Amino acid sequence: MPVYLLHGFRWPRAAIRIHIILHHLDDAAAEWISAPTTTATLLASFRTLYPDPMRHLPNLQFVEQYDEKDTSPNATSQPYAFVADKVEQCGLSADVGEVMGRGVAAEGWGALAELRDLLAKGEK
Questions:
Q1: What is the mean pLDDT for each group of 10 consecutive residues in the chain (124 residues)?
Q2: Helix ranges restricted to H, the chain
Protein backbone atom coordinates (compact mmCIF):
# COMPACT_ATOMS: atom_id res chain seq x y z
CA MET A 1 0.00 0.00 0.00
CA PRO A 2 1.50 3.37 -0.96
CA VAL A 3 2.29 5.96 1.67
CA TYR A 4 1.92 9.66 0.97
CA LEU A 5 3.40 12.71 2.60
CA LEU A 6 1.27 15.76 2.02
CA HIS A 7 1.01 19.40 2.93
CA GLY A 8 -2.65 20.01 3.53
CA PHE A 9 -5.51 19.56 5.93
CA ARG A 10 -8.27 17.12 6.83
CA TRP A 11 -11.69 17.98 5.47
CA PRO A 12 -14.41 16.29 7.54
CA ARG A 13 -16.81 14.24 5.41
CA ALA A 14 -19.82 16.03 6.93
CA ALA A 15 -18.37 19.39 5.82
CA ILE A 16 -17.79 17.98 2.32
CA ARG A 17 -21.43 16.93 2.10
CA ILE A 18 -22.60 20.33 3.33
CA HIS A 19 -20.40 22.14 0.77
CA ILE A 20 -21.75 20.00 -2.06
CA ILE A 21 -25.38 20.51 -1.02
CA LEU A 22 -25.18 24.25 -0.27
CA HIS A 23 -23.47 25.01 -3.57
CA HIS A 24 -25.62 22.67 -5.68
CA LEU A 25 -22.68 20.64 -6.98
CA ASP A 26 -24.71 17.93 -8.66
CA ASP A 27 -21.68 16.32 -10.32
CA ALA A 28 -19.77 15.89 -7.06
CA ALA A 29 -19.72 12.70 -4.96
CA ALA A 30 -19.05 13.37 -1.29
CA GLU A 31 -17.90 9.81 -0.64
CA TRP A 32 -15.04 9.82 -3.16
CA ILE A 33 -13.77 13.33 -3.85
CA SER A 34 -10.67 12.16 -5.69
CA ALA A 35 -12.81 10.94 -8.61
CA PRO A 36 -11.99 13.08 -11.69
CA THR A 37 -15.47 14.60 -12.11
CA THR A 38 -15.80 15.38 -8.41
CA THR A 39 -12.32 16.89 -8.29
CA ALA A 40 -13.05 19.13 -11.29
CA THR A 41 -16.40 20.19 -9.83
CA LEU A 42 -14.96 21.00 -6.40
CA LEU A 43 -12.00 22.91 -7.84
CA ALA A 44 -14.31 25.00 -10.03
CA SER A 45 -16.44 25.71 -6.97
CA PHE A 46 -13.39 26.77 -4.94
CA ARG A 47 -12.17 29.06 -7.75
CA THR A 48 -15.57 30.77 -7.81
CA LEU A 49 -16.11 30.98 -4.05
CA TYR A 50 -12.53 31.57 -2.88
CA PRO A 51 -10.64 33.26 -5.74
CA ASP A 52 -7.97 34.91 -3.57
CA PRO A 53 -6.44 31.80 -1.97
CA MET A 54 -6.98 29.71 -5.11
CA ARG A 55 -4.65 32.04 -7.07
CA HIS A 56 -1.78 30.61 -5.01
CA LEU A 57 -2.88 26.96 -5.10
CA PRO A 58 -2.50 25.82 -8.72
CA ASN A 59 -1.79 22.20 -7.76
CA LEU A 60 -4.55 21.66 -5.22
CA GLN A 61 -5.47 17.97 -4.92
CA PHE A 62 -7.86 15.77 -2.98
CA VAL A 63 -6.64 12.62 -1.30
CA GLU A 64 -8.88 9.89 0.07
CA GLN A 65 -8.05 7.80 3.09
CA TYR A 66 -8.39 4.16 2.06
CA ASP A 67 -7.52 0.75 3.49
CA GLU A 68 -7.70 -1.97 0.84
CA LYS A 69 -7.94 -4.64 3.56
CA ASP A 70 -11.02 -3.10 5.17
CA THR A 71 -14.05 -4.79 3.65
CA SER A 72 -16.51 -3.69 6.33
CA PRO A 73 -19.60 -1.64 5.43
CA ASN A 74 -17.93 1.42 7.00
CA ALA A 75 -15.00 1.21 4.57
CA THR A 76 -16.90 3.03 1.85
CA SER A 77 -17.06 6.28 3.80
CA GLN A 78 -14.09 7.41 5.84
CA PRO A 79 -14.58 10.34 8.24
CA TYR A 80 -12.10 12.58 6.42
CA ALA A 81 -10.65 13.34 3.03
CA PHE A 82 -7.59 15.54 2.62
CA VAL A 83 -7.05 18.76 0.69
CA ALA A 84 -3.40 19.29 -0.23
CA ASP A 85 -1.26 21.58 -2.31
CA LYS A 86 1.68 19.18 -2.28
CA VAL A 87 1.57 15.37 -2.35
CA GLU A 88 4.60 13.07 -2.45
CA GLN A 89 4.37 9.29 -2.66
CA CYS A 90 7.02 7.84 -0.37
CA GLY A 91 8.72 4.49 -0.70
CA LEU A 92 10.07 2.47 2.20
CA SER A 93 13.41 4.24 2.13
CA ALA A 94 12.10 7.76 1.55
CA ASP A 95 14.11 10.58 3.08
CA VAL A 96 11.29 12.52 4.73
CA GLY A 97 13.64 15.37 5.60
CA GLU A 98 14.54 15.79 1.94
CA VAL A 99 10.87 15.87 0.91
CA MET A 100 10.04 18.38 3.62
CA GLY A 101 13.10 20.43 2.69
CA ARG A 102 11.62 21.13 -0.74
CA GLY A 103 9.03 23.13 1.13
CA VAL A 104 6.04 25.14 0.05
CA ALA A 105 6.10 28.78 -1.08
CA ALA A 106 5.02 31.30 1.56
CA GLU A 107 2.06 32.41 -0.58
CA GLY A 108 0.89 28.83 -0.92
CA TRP A 109 1.25 28.21 2.80
CA GLY A 110 -0.90 31.22 3.67
CA ALA A 111 -3.45 30.47 0.95
CA LEU A 112 -3.86 26.88 2.12
CA ALA A 113 -4.35 28.05 5.72
CA GLU A 114 -6.99 30.53 4.54
CA LEU A 115 -8.79 27.82 2.53
CA ARG A 116 -8.61 25.46 5.53
CA ASP A 117 -10.24 28.09 7.75
CA LEU A 118 -13.02 28.56 5.18
CA LEU A 119 -13.71 24.84 4.61
CA ALA A 120 -12.69 23.07 7.82
CA LYS A 121 -12.60 25.51 10.69
CA GLY A 122 -10.77 24.02 13.66
CA GLU A 123 -8.63 21.59 11.64
CA LYS A 124 -4.85 21.90 11.73
A1: 85 96 96 94 98 96 84 80 91 78 85 96 88
A2: 13-22, 36-49, 51-54, 96-102, 106-119
